[in-house]
């Protein structure tokens, strides 16, 4: 694994705008960064990222079955009691799921280490799936990358295939929703709608703040149409604390991601996985935080934190690093495994699972060891040889 400098495409900003990637620059700072790329060998991708992603995903899915049958585990995950039966029922009905992202610390040496699961509202999807593949094709065509250069990236094809599978499982009508003024979230939702359309599954767009509630407790669109299925790029744990979300269990709406994903989007799954698979090479030691002083060599994360917020790192050398944010409440501790610096940046590998298939990855790079919402997206390429598994 190497970080390699490369010339930018001269018209990439125009191409981004044309494709709907309007959040390539956020608050005047680059989000998409193609001044460099991360080069991997095929062995690193297949053995260190793809295979562990599939294995950890299977382990996480097995854990859901255990959690929905245990009030004690629901307590540990701080899932509100009034939503527990609804979450358990969604699992027992095997309500279908779409996608998720596993975040790994990886520098090309030794096994990748799982930092967390993003299984409810994972973002950085369009840039991982479409735009970095376009970058790869352009750079090959301009002879800046070798003709055999490839990418671990079958995300788009997997999404279209998955939506085709979901078409008979989602009660109509289907709506796609996110916060109305979030350009990034709206861009992600627009991309997913397009993937669904390519699979023959039609879905309407609605801002989540425009969803109404009928007198009989049904979720409705602006024209009072009752929503059958709702893809919502909005944290389920936040919905469950809002008055609007109190109607979820009785609303009859089928969510995508389904209610049972509330278990896997919770950082409490990290100590639960460690307890059941202690010593697994891709897991870091983890435990539920007891509120005492954070010892050296450990990281504290709230159960419901996102985008690197409210993380405290007490490294083995005694140094501290903390990030601010709005999250409080119960937390976990995870053994510190700091990201490695490459040319001043700290890359975090996001490995995508669509349905139950590990199918691609994207890399976000921050200036610190805590990957925050200000991190940059940097493309990657497989350079060493022609692939034995084809990622198209």
From TrEMBL:
InterPro entries: GSPS_pre-ATP-grasp-like_dom (IPR005494), PreATP-grasp_dom_sf (IPR016185)
One example GO MF annotation: ligase activity
Catalytic class of the enzyme: ligase
Any coiled-coil regions, as ranges: none
EC number: 6.3.1.-
Record-annotated Glutathionylspermidine synthase pre-ATP-grasp-like domain positions: 12-382
Keyword vocabulary terms for this entry: ATP-binding, Ligase, Magnesium, Metal-binding, Nucleotide-binding
Pfam families: GSP_synth (PF03738)
Name listed for the protein in its UniProt record: Glutathionylspermidine synthase family protein
Organism of provenance: Stenotrophomonas nematodicola
């Amino acid at each position: 694994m190497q970080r390699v400098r490369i010339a930018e495409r001269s018209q990439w900003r125009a191409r981004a705008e044309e494709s709907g990637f309007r959040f390539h620059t956020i608050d005047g700072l680059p989000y998409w960064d193609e001044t460099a790329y991360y080069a991997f060998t095929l062995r690193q991708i297949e053995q260190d990222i793809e295979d562990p992603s599939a294995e950890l995903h299977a382990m996480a899915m097995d854990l859901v079955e255990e959690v929905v049958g245990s009030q004690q585990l629901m307590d540990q995950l701080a899932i509100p009691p009034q939503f527990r039966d609804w979450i358990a029922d969604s699992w027992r009905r095997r309500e279908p799921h779409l996608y998720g992202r596993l975040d790994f610390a990886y520098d090309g040496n030794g096994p990748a280490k799982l930092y967390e699961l993003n299984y409810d509202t994972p973002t950085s999807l369009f840039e991982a799936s479409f735009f970095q593949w376009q970058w790869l094709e352009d750079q090959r065509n301009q002879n800046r990358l070798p003709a055999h250069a490839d990418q671990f990236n079958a995300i788009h094809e997997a999404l279209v295939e998955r939506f085709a599978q979901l078409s008979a499982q989602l009660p109509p009508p289907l709506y796609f929703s996110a916060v109305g003024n979030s350009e990034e979230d709206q861009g992600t939702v627009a991309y997913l709608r397009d993937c669904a359309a390519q699979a023959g599954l039609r879905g309407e767009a609605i801002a989540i703040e425009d969803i109404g509630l009928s007198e009989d407790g049904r979720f409705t669109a602006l024209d009072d149409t009752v929503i059958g299925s709702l893809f919502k790029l909005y944290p389920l744990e936040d919905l469950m604390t809002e008055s609007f979300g109190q109607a979820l269990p009785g609303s009859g709406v089928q969510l995508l991601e389904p209610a049972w994903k509330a278990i896997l989007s919770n950082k409490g799954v990290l100590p639960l996985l460690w307890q059941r698979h202690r010593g697994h090479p891709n897991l870091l030691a983890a435990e539920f935080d007891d509120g005492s002083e954070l010892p050296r060599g450990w990281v504290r994360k709230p159960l419901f934190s996102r985008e690197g917020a409210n993380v405290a790192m007490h490294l083995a050398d005694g140094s501290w690093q903390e990030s601010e944010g709005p999250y409080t409440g119960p937390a976990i501790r995870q053994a510190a495994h700091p990201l490695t610096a490459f040319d001043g940046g700290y890359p975090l590998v996001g490995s995508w699972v669509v349905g139950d298939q590990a199918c691609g990855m994207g890399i976000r790079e921050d200036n610190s060891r805590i990957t925050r919402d200000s991190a940059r997206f940097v493309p990657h390429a497989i350079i060493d040889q022609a692939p034995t598994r084809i990622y198209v």
